[in-house]
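Reviewer 2 asked us to include a model.

Predict the structure of this chain.
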Amino acid sequence: WVGDEYCFTEVDYAVVNHYSEFVMGPTDQVERFADRWQAVKDADGWYPITCDREGPPMHFRIQGRDYTLTKSDLLVKWRDDPTCYLAITGGGSPRTWTLGAPFLRKFYVLFDSLNKRVGIALAKSGSDSFV
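Predicted model (structure tokens):
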């Protein structure tokens, strides 16, 4: 979902990965999302934008529940760099999303390997997305 508009296809898998600094998805879907932010991929594959740019939230529906990443979750700013970056990137499997650091800063994820399930809840307090 982007804002109130559905624009992503259904996917087979969503992977939660605390090693990933970004949310990674199918390239064509990431590019459509970046277009809604008027962000253009640079030579390194990042989406630089001005920090005051407005854009739609990103929603994930997992097992019938919606999890939303907003501007403050999706923008990353490195210390002295005046530019912000969308914390998304394309790649991997065409039917998989990897929910990395932006997702994990906002949501607490509990892995219950004994019962083969995962629990997701809004974290008590998230950290600032600006690093």
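Helices lie at 27-36, 71-74, 101-106. The first helix runs from residue 27 to 36. We have added this to the supplementary material.
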